[in-house]
Amino acid sequence: MSPDDRVYAYSAVLLGSPILLKLFDHNQTLAARVFRLIKQQEILLTVNRPHSEVMSINHAAGESPVVVSQPVFELIARARAASVLPGSLFNFTIGPLVKRWKIGFQGNSVPPLAEIQALLALTNPHHVILNDRDRSVFLQKSGMEIDLGAIAKGYIADLVRDFLRQEGVEDALINLGGNVQTLGGAADSESGSWGIGLKKPFAGPDELIGVINVRGKSVVTSGVYERYFELAGKRYHHILDPRSGYPLDNELLSVTVISADSIEGDIYTTLLYGMGVEKGLAYLAARPEIEAIFVTRDGQVISSSARQFTFTLLDEDFHQA
Ligand code: FAD
Ligand code: MG
Ligand code: MG
């Protein structure tokens, strides 16, 4: 029996994304509980429906603080902290621009410059006031909107890992559409690790640049090829530059972060994407617990230190720098 025959895969569509759970035992009930957990988080955190804890904060922008649950408050505090780091292009108050561009959703278009500039005035993370005495969140200006799209999948992937661990599961993989978290390794595979494909940008769904092998680590990828639209020969992807209000434009096609926690991976993919290769590598040099693989437009695959993973290059169009 090949190792793959022993892996049971369960799939769902949640968080607007294809969700994949791999287990080593056939356990439909456990899979259903995992999907329920993800669904519960989606209901709290979504900005794609009229009601959620996050939407209640957005609806009260410029008017009043809103008390939220402890976990949501903590997640928002993490998002705010990442957003106010000096030079950070991670910005969780990017909501008004995300809503206006609608990249990856029906009805996307390129907004007029004046409109972008007006919306940029609503994206200052310092204008989010957190009060930890009553766990309230206040958006100071009317029209402000928080968007946890760049951090929430990582947070949820960690919750799934913790839940599975509590249930006594030793080996599992959860993929929330670009956010992978693992428990153990693929127990009876030759390598004893999970192999996670690094997708080839703008190619078929099964075409890979290479494979990243990890045990009990998170692997998160952010790329320009995930959600985008094209207009007049130009591509507009979903990671926005909070300085200009336009999609972030640099030498990168994707950034993958390997770390213990997926929330960290999710924050760092977006942060590092904004930094580019050179600054990103320098930034990581002081953070050995976070490792990354950058893929550039000119076909280079550049990794920082690689203590927590191994990488196997498969595609000849790319070369390891
Ligand atoms: P990342 O690179 O980690 O983040 C990019 C996303 O973060 C963007 O899509 C945007 O939302 C936001 N963002 C853009 N620029 C910045 C920036 N500079 N700083 C910080 N954040 C930025 N998709 C659907 O199609 N339909 C849904 O109903 C839907 N519901 C969702 C509900 C929840 C709770 C979550 C977490 C996601 C949902 N999504 C949905 C997907 C969502 O719209 C984003 O596309 C997704 O979260 C992007 O994740 P990523 O890891 O690919 O990208
Ligand atoms: Mg992210
Ligand atoms: Mg992400």
From TrEMBL:
Task: Provide any one GO MF term from the record.
Answer: transferase activity
Q: What is its EC number?
A: 2.7.1.180
What note does UniProt attach to the cofactor annotation?
Magnesium. Can also use manganese.
Q: Which cofactor does it need?
A: Mg(2+); Mn(2+)
InterPro entries in UniProt: ApbE, ApbE-like_sf
Keywords, sorted A to Z: FAD, Flavoprotein, Magnesium, Metal-binding, Transferase
Indicate the enzyme's highest-level EC class.
transferase
Name the positions where Mg(2+) binds: 150, 266, 270
Superkingdom of source: Bacteria
- Annotated SUPFAM superfamilies: ApbE-like (SSF143631)
Q: Which reaction is this enzyme known to catalyze? A: L-threonyl-[protein] + FAD = FMN-L-threonyl-[protein] + AMP + H(+)
Q: Which Pfam families match?
A: ApbE
The text of the family note is: Belongs to the ApbE family.
The name under which this protein is listed is: FAD:protein FMN transferase
